[in-house]
Specification:
The complex is a heterodimer of chains A (about 475) and B (about 300).
Chain A lengths: L15 H20 L5 E5 L5 E5 L1 H35 L9 H4 L1 H52 L8 H18 L3 H23 L4 H21 L1 H4 L5 E2 L20 H5 L6 H27 L1 H11 L1 H6 L4 H27 L1 E2 L6 H13 L5 H18 L4 H6 L9 H15 L7 E2 L11 E2 L9
Antiparallel strand pairs in A: 1-2, 3-4, 5-6
Chain B lengths: L1 H31 L6 H23 L4 H28 L8 H22 L4 E2 L7 E4 L2 E4 H23 L1 H11 L1 H6 L4 H27 L1 E2 L5 H14 L4 H21 L5 H15 L14
Antiparallel strand pairs in B: 1-4, 2-3
Classes of the chains: A mainly alpha (about 475), B mainly alpha (about 300).
Organism (chain A): Mesorhizobium retamae
Subcellular location (chain A): Cell membrane
Protein name (chain A): High-affinity branched-chain amino acid ABC transporter permease LivM
Chain lengths: ~475, ~300
């Protein structure tokens, strides 16, 4: 963590090695200070349930030495290398390279890869073992892509900072869970219903708070997200409290085929193939993909419509917007409602996939993760957001799979434990490395003669 | 009436803790205009440091006078927690200064996740209870006031006085206020802006560490996830009072404390947080920049 501490006092040190050594000692001392109580000692309960301290000085020494050495290597070798590369780049004539095939057709290639993904997985590892890859990676990532694209409408296009997006996700999930279990309505009826309900909540929240700007808006949306979660926990008669709702009906194949083994029209009976849970997962994968692509399609089309242009204008300059006669209130409300609707779609899909919902799934950290994906992807860029979702969610999911680490660190090592720690650190590192996100430029929707990418340093992020 | 006053006392205790944390949010917001999401976890680190120091003291000396123990816990917690916040500012926020507004917000959220999980990984996920440190309870006219509550209110009052003096009467405070008004101009007039910002983070963390120590003493238990809820409430308090305003942070903290204790006393304890958040929303609808906040001036 302390690897990037900069002690740049501005003086020119003749010997870079001496400087690196000095910085390494500083970093080591800081690490010692930070970790002496937290790594050097561990609080544990003894048999009488009293807290006792366990000493771990060896581990502390290891961590401090690693930090110091890392800092030394960084200052002595990495920084000069980066500087050299920069100097070379500046010296070389700016050659405008024609974007390669992959770059030009990135979106279509991406969609093709996503379409083929389950086929490839099944053909590589067979039906039964494909479950994990299609479900944990494919569907999980697609849900986050869907959510992030939905939030992108609010944050990336309209420039409204929403820290409680997960509330709409929760509304969608509970709408499906409650109506599906109590009234036995089908997913295909409840999906639009959940979307409308979430949009309705978006308007309900948006109406009073749209007078607020910037961080005030952020905190009210955060508060709203928490209120929804707390109500879900405490309104036990309806939501069953923290225990959640289980037995949520599965999605059917448009009513033609079912994925319940006991049903007469169970898929393997209809098609005459062997029973397997994998069909349902693969079907859900394509459903998630379709919903995500729908979100993307609507976003792209909306950006070309007056309302989408108004959103982006609002992000760039609210005062100019108002003076040009755009009704900022309705513009903000439509952004909120549209974003919320996609959150609701994602929520009802989530409920159908899990078969179980509980308030645990809708904590603030989820909102933060979705927002982080939007920002890391480069706000407003759909492809960038998808890449960010794959990197962040796929990356943390893959940590569960790293069995070989057990060989390195001993059999007690559980990589899952470090999942969120690494996730948090990755958020920081990616942001420091690319503050404008993976895709730092925007595609203009209105242009003269030729479409040129706009560097995001020219776009604003809104104040509302 | 007695019941009401009793709730006032409880609210004052809670509000003091929220107020101490809220100052850290509001100062950082005032000076660099970012929401330091990791501040709640800084508070948790403070509480955890106090816990470990308490255990060290207990292991090394057996029984220590409570005043000494509390003082040592507070001082060590203040030092180490400041070091955490200082490092975080240097690593995660400073390189992004002048970058766009959401970038430091995301690193702050990342740091918040990383900090709480760091403590979970190194200290284990369980709740950490300690034996009660102070247990005297006084009965004044039918209202029971525990020594814990008195300590919390007194410590908060003393710290706030000290803090008020620091901000309003010293060169450092003047530099801070100058940076808050106009960072560029302050730099031109010879104020070391980076240093001032670092000190602001250190001061915020020190107050949060005291709040953490008091929290540990009051509840007698702490866990790695304890940073989030007090953090959000303190931030709510800062916004309620008008973010950027120091008296506003304390006022907001007290208000949130009162709302919470009154609501749990007269209505339902389950919905006390809902009440606090709803009142925030209602206040902001009518006073869009908080109670003591300066209204934002729109420039064209």
């Amino acid at each position: 963590m302390a690897v990037t501490v900069s002690n740049n006092t501005g003086e020119t040190v003749a010997n870079p090695m001496a400087r690196a050594l000095r910085e390494a000692i500083y970093a080591g001392l800081i690490a010692l200070g930070l970790f002496i109580l937290f790594i050097g000692l561990r609080t544990d309960q003894n048999i009488r349930n009293e807290l006792v301290l366990i000493q771990r000085w060896g581990l502390l020494a290891t961590v401090v030495v690693i930090t110091a050495v890392g800092r030394f290597l960084y200052v002595a070798f990495v920084i000069p290398a980066i500087e050299r590369a920069k100097a070379e780049k500046a010296a070389a004539p700016a050659a405008v390279a024609e974007p390669g095939f992959i770059r030009r057709n990135f979106n279509w290639l991406g969609i093709a890869v996503l379409l083929l993904y389950p086929v490839v997985v099944v053909s590589l590892v067979g039906f039964q073992s494909s479950l994990k890859w299609v479900d944990n990676f494919g569907i999980q990532i697609l849900i986050y892509v869907m959510l992030a694209w939905g939030l992108n409408i609010v944050v990336g296009l309209a420039g409204l900072l929403d820290l409680g997006y997960v509330a709409f996700y929760a509304v969608g999930a509970y709408a499906y869970a409650l109506l599906g279990t109590h009234y036995g309505l089908s997913f295909w009826i409840l999906l639009p219903a959940a979307g409308i309900m979430a949009a309705f909540w978006g308007v309900l929240l948006g109406f009073p708070v749209l007078r607020l700007r910037g961080d005030y808006l952020a905190i009210v949306t955060l508060a709203f997200g928490e209120i929804i979660r707390l109500v879900l926990i405490n309104w036990r008669e309806v939501t069953n409290g923290a225990a959640g709702i289980s037995g949520i009906p599965k999605v059917s194949f448009f009513g033609l085929m079912s994925f319940n083994v006991s049903d007469p029209n169970y898929i393997s009976k209809v098609l005459g193939i062997a029973q397997s849970g994998a069909y349902y997962k693969i079907f859900l994968y394509y459903l998630a993909l379709a919903l995500a692509l729908l979100t993307a399609f609507v976003t792209i089309r909306l950006r070309r419509m007056p309302v989408g242009r108004a959103w982006e204008a609002l992000r760039e300059d609210e005062i100019a917007c108002r003076s040009l006669g755009i009704n900022t209130t309705t513009t903000k409300l439509t952004a909120f409602a549209t974003g919320a609707m996609f959150g609701g779609f994602a929520g009802s899909f989530f409920a159908a996939r899990q078969g179980f919902v509980s308030p645990e799934s809708f904590v603030f950290i989820e909102s933060a993760i979705i927002l982080a994906i939007v920002v890391l992807g480069g706000m407003g860029s759909l492809a960038g957001i998808a890449v960010a979702a794959v990197v962040m969610i796929g990356g943390t999911e893959i940590l569960r799979e790293l069995e070989f680490l057990k060989v390195v660190f001993g059999p007690d090592f559980t990589p899952e434990l470090y999942r969120m720690l690494l996730f948090g650190m990755a958020m920081v590192i990616v942001m420091l490395w690319k503050p404008r996100g993976f895709v730092g430029s925007r595609e203009p929707t209105a242009f003269l003669k030729e479409r040129k990418a706009v560097s995001s340093s020219f776009t604003k992020e809104g104040h509302g | 009436m007695q019941y009401f006053v009793q709730q006032l006392v409880n609210g004052l205790t809670l509000g003091s803790i929220y107020g101490l944390i809220a100052i850290g949010y509001t100062m950082v917001y005032g000076i660099i205009g970012m929401i330091n999401f990791a501040h709640g976890d800084i508070f948790m680190v403070g509480a955890f440091t106090a816990l470990i120091v308490f255990l060290i003291l207990a292991a090394a000396f057996g029984s220590v006078p409570i005043v000494v123990a509390l003082l040592v816990m507070m001082i060590v917690a203040m030092l180490l927690t400041s070091l955490y916040n200082w490092t975080i500012e240097k690593v995660a926020y400073r390189p992004l200064r002048g970058s766009f507004r959401l970038a430091p917000l995301i690193t702050a959220i990342g740091m918040s996740i990383a900090l709480s999980n760091f403590v979970q990984v190194t200290q284990g996920p369980r709740n950490k209870p300690i034996p009660p440190m102070v247990s005297q309870v006084y009965n004044i006219g039918g209202i029971s006031i525990s020594l814990k509550q008195i300590i919390i209110v007194v410590v908060t009052a003393v710290l706030l006085a000290l803090f008020w003096y620091l901000v309003n009467r010293t060169a450092l405070g003047r530099a801070q206020r100058a940076c808050e008004q106009d960072r560029k101009m302050a730099a031109l007039l010879g104020i070391d802006v980076d240093r001032t910002i670092s000190i602001t983070f250190i001061m915020g963390a020190a107050l949060a560490a005291v709040a953490g120590t008091l929290f540990l003493m009051y509840y007698g238990v702490v866990s790695f996830s304890d940073g989030f809820v007090p953090g959000v409430k303190a931030f709510t308090a800062a916004v309620l009072g008008g973010i950027g305003s120091l008296p506003g942070a304390v006022l907001g903290g007290l208000l949130i404390g009162f709302i919470e204790s009154m609501w749990s006393a007269y209505f339902s304890i389950d919905y006390k947080d809902v009440a606090a958040f709803s009142i925030l929303a209602i206040v902001l609808i009518f006073l869009p920049s908080g109670i003591l906040g300066r209204p934002e001036v729109e420039k064209v």
